[in-house]
Amino acid sequence: MALLPILCYPDPRLHTVAKPVAAVDDRIRTLVADMLDTMYDAKGIGLAATQIDVHERVIVIDVSEERDDPIVLINPELVWTSPGTHLNEEGCLSVPGIYDGVERFDAVHVRAMDLAGQVRTIEAEELLAVCIQHEMDHLMGKVFVEYLSPLKRNRIKTKLRKAQREDAR
Ligand code: NI
Description:
This protein is an alpha+beta fold. It is 29% helix and 26% strand.
């Protein structure tokens, strides 16, 4: 088991655009295992490789209550989005303690490779759909607070920078 440090907003590395994974090999399998350990340890429902400073298109998610249903998305692509959207209260392991509303598609279909290198399409709605959209934004270098007003975002930056300074003491 390996726990990886999670980058905290406003760390500029969170804005790196991830590259596609060339092959699902032992290195990627180890990365995914470590990401799952890190996500479960942090009590998150999703983690993108970007958040642990690895800039490749890898996401892990588990929205189950029992925390025993991991989903691994490698090179994910949205192939369909619903016409409807809704406002959803979101948080992020990279933005600790901050929750705010973001408009997301109600449902999405995502095509991605799994750990066996098989391409599959997942039809997602509700929390899973929101989580997939949130994590795919991370791979594009986007953090959910960037949907908020500049005023709110600056307040969040100030608050988190202060908390990080206090942590460093
Ligand atoms: Ni996040």
